Structure to design on (562 residues):
């Protein structure tokens, strides 16, 4: 189901952990969504000197986090801002379609971490860590049911093909 | 250590006696049981013998009440749709089911809903058990069918089928039970249970996939799902899968003979696992009912990690296990069974389903625990949820 590259990054994830004194931290997703990712940055002269991640999620989510850190390491902030989820998925030789949307939060977490760095630099008060809540879609992303692969329309919370839940008596 | 299968519910190995019987049957070059010549007669005899064996396994006193199918999926589809269609007279189109059914029941009922049937699904308690009173309350004048599973395929919980059957009998409603993961695994007696229809399959008791059966109480109105010839007492068209059915018959004989010793053996494996587990990992939840539960199944929700990752790591170490996590499809669906029992979404995501078989050994369980600990430690070390709790 997964490409060899995905399995390689899943089995030997690069840059796992946290950075003591990180000057940019981004957190995306939440356990309700099935995935949660934290990215820690050490930025010096607008260059990502070090990057680490923590992820709660499936094989794809872990591989995405690992690949993202590899791509981002050593990049300037301007370069790093241009990294997209699609870039990460492509570097992993693709992801199964029901994993594309929700497991693929890596670039969002990176961008949130860079935003955090820039906010700190600008002296903005440190707000709550930004999280992508339960179910937001980026452009043209779609959800697929993990069981039947049916496309799930925006706004639906259950797969119509798999569930009877709308009939349940309260 | 070789490959360890802790996912018997997905696929059981065929017993050697079953393999031999099937290979022998292939070589015998059986005919078609419907043919009126010697080859057909020989095939009919083999078919009838298998039917007797399967009937004995579920204490069905008249083997004509068993029809052979292609497996659990067909049996359930046949029972649910066939009973609904045949009994939907005078606008009676209401069916009662539970929130934890296998998706074969759920999707069959969805299809009936598209055809105008009304469905009521009753909730379960934190062990995944249906309260028979809820079933009684859900039944109304329009109700024709109740379909509640015997045991749950994700958490192993066994439902109070006899109690529910008393209610359906009293209210004159047909009762079907999906017993796919129970028949041949735990004692099933259709007379004692009091069901009108019961679905089962051959693989859970080490017979071949592609062979299953449906018990139909005599006099029950049910339409065929597959229309064709007059096979299976005019209830299921199509030449029978004789080789598979012969294998199923042998598997049924062995299951009946060895049931007690198999249950004893598998229980020791399950007990060993449950006893030893706290020595290897902490912070987990055992899902399902502690008493009314399949002897071969353990569902364990391991906190702060996600199930698919664990399954992939176990596979790397040649251990087969299964998960019911939604594996990252958004907030859409973790297992409907786990969520119905009230399990937290994140815990449902970390749920591992282990099903032991007679080919497993205590040494395998020990090895598995060691590997599991490693996988859990590795995943927790990279989990932001683990760090967010008091473990930092």
């Amino acid at each position: 189901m997964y490409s060899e590259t995905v399995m390689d990054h899943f089995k030997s994830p690069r840059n796992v952990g946290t950075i003591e004194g990180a000057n940019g931290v981004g957190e995306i997703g939440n356990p309700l969504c099935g995935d949660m990712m934290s990215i820690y940055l050490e930025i010096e002269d607008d260059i990502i000197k070090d990057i680490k991640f923590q992820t709660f999620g499936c094989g794809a989510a872990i591989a995405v986090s690992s690949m993202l850190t590899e791509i981002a390491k050593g990049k300037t902030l301007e370069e790093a801002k241009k990294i997209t989820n699609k870039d990460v998925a492509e570097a992993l030789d693709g992801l199964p379609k029901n994993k594309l949307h929700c497991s693929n939060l890596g670039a969002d977490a990176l961008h949130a971490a860079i935003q955090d760095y820039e906010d700190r630099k600008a002296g903005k008060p440190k707000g709550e860590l930004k999280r992508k809540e339960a179910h937001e879609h980026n452009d043209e992303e779609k959800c697929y049911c993990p069981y039947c692969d049916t496309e799930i329309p925006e706004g639906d919370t259950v797969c119509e093909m798999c569930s009877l839940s709308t009939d349940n008596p309260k | 250590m070789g490959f360890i299968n802790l996912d018997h519910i997905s696929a059981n190995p065929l017993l050697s006696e079953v393999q031999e019987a099937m290979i022998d049957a292939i070589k015998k070059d059986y005919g078609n049981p419907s043919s009126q010549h010697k080859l057909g007669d020989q095939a009919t005899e083999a078919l009838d013998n298998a039917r007797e064996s399967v009937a004995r396994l579920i204490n069905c006193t008249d083997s004509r009440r068993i029809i052979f199918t292609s497996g659990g999926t067909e049996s359930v589809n046949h029972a649910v749709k066939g009973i609904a269609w045949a009994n939907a007279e005078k606008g009676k189109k209401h069916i009662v089911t539970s929130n934890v059914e296998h998706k074969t029941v759920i999707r069959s009922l969805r299809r009936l809903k598209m055809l105008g049937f009304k469905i009521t699904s009753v909730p379960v308690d934190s062990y995944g058990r249906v309260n028979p009173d809820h079933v009684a309350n859900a039944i109304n004048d329009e109700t024709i069918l109740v379909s509640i599973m015997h045991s749950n395929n994700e958490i192993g919980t066994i439902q109070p089928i006899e109690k529910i059957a008393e209610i359906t009998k009293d209210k004159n409603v047909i009762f079907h039970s999906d017993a796919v993961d129970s028949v041949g695994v735990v004692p099933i007696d259709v007379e004692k249970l009091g069901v009108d229809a019961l679905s089962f399959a051959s693989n859970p008791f080490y017979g071949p996939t592609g062979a299953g059966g449906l018990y139909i109480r005599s006099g029950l109105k049910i339409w065929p799902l597959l229309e064709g010839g007059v096979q299976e007492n005019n209830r299921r068209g199509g030449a029978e899968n004789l080789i598979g059915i012969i294998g199923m018959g042998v598997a049924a004989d062995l299951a009946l003979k060895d049931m007690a010793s198999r249950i004893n053996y598998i229980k020791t494996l399950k007990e060993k696992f449950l006893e030893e587990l706290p020595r290897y990992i902490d912070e987990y939840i055992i899902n399902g009912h502690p008493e009314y539960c399949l002897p071969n199944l353990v569902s364990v929700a391991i906190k702060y990690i996600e199930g698919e990752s664990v399954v992939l790591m176990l596979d790397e170490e040649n251990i087969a296990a299964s998960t019911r996590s939604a594996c990252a499809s958004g907030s859409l669906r973790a297992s409907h069974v786990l969520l119905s029992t009230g399990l937290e979404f994140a815990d449902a995501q970390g749920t591992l389903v282990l099903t032991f078989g007679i080919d497993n050994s205590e040494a395998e369980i020990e090895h598995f625990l060691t590997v599991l600990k490693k996988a859990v430690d590795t995943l927790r070390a990279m989990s932001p949820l683990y760090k967010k709790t008091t473990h930092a």
Summary: Chain B touches chain A through 42 residues (CB under 8 Å). Residues 327-332 of chain B have pLDDT under 50 and may be disordered. Residues 242-280 of chain B form the longest helix (39 residues). Chain B has two domains: 4-10+259-388, 16-255.
